[in-house]
Amino acid sequence: MNGRITINDVARAAGVSVATVSKAINGRYGVSPETMATVMGVVSDLGYESSLVATSMRRRSTNVIGVLVAEFEPFSLQLLRGVSSALQDTDYDVLAYAGTVSAGDHLGWEHRSLSRLGGTLIDGAILVTPTTTRTKTSVPIVSVDPHIGADDPATVGVANVEGARAATEHLISLGHRRIAHLRGRIDLESAQERERGYREALESAGIPFDPELVADGGYRTSDSTAAARGILDLPDTPTAVFAANDLSAIEMIRIASERGLRVPDDISVVGFDDILDAASHTPQLTTVRQPLPEMGTAAVRMLLDVLQGHAPEPIRMPTTLVVRESTAAPRR
Known about the structure:
The chain is α/β, with parallel strands linked by helices.
């Protein structure tokens, strides 16, 4: 495409009307998140940003809060409930944006997403489980489940160490001594803290830490499959597993079932998060509850305070052990 890019070029390439493009780039009502993403992708590809920046400068604000997630999975969806609830009595709308639904390397997805949305569509952003440390951005940001390298007060997290310790102590109280840990994304503060809680519980009980019993689960079902199989392939298989999130725990149960093992008769499993699937799963999953909707609400309130010029302070919310059907005393 030659010459100056116009709004008509964007509309033609995106397969939408000029009116829809205008609404999208000005953050107005009536455009779905999917159409918004399509239009903004074309805007980026065609180099129409200069017009967007000019529009943003004229309008000064969009009254839209962006929630940027890697993907729309159970953890982020429950956070979004809290975000939506917190914004109901404000002048702000919410734009939910998934940064890793396309093919390719997704490291740094939040930076690419912010370059498309920041200063043109949103006044501020809530980043959920970012993949890298913060870089300079055009809008204020609050991080939920922050990256381990972040040194930023605008963060919302939970008492991960205490929650992981409670999960492991629960297994120990049932009589388990050989307890594996399916850990999360090691670049996230939460995963490192949960492993720390697991180790502290073992140490307090006088159980030696065995690095062979720790496997990388990555917080995603697809990433935890090989790790779950590796744990069950050990010559002396564990009698229990503490998984760093519920998706990994549920995958652990699936792999155990594949091997003919029953949960909790042959192996106990504990998760972390208490997503909706935890209670509806068979067996119902023992897990550590994060107050996910409340975390979304807290992130919104912090971001709105930042937008009003207030200095943020990090928030750490409590966790609660929820005992269900996936844990029992060992049979061996």
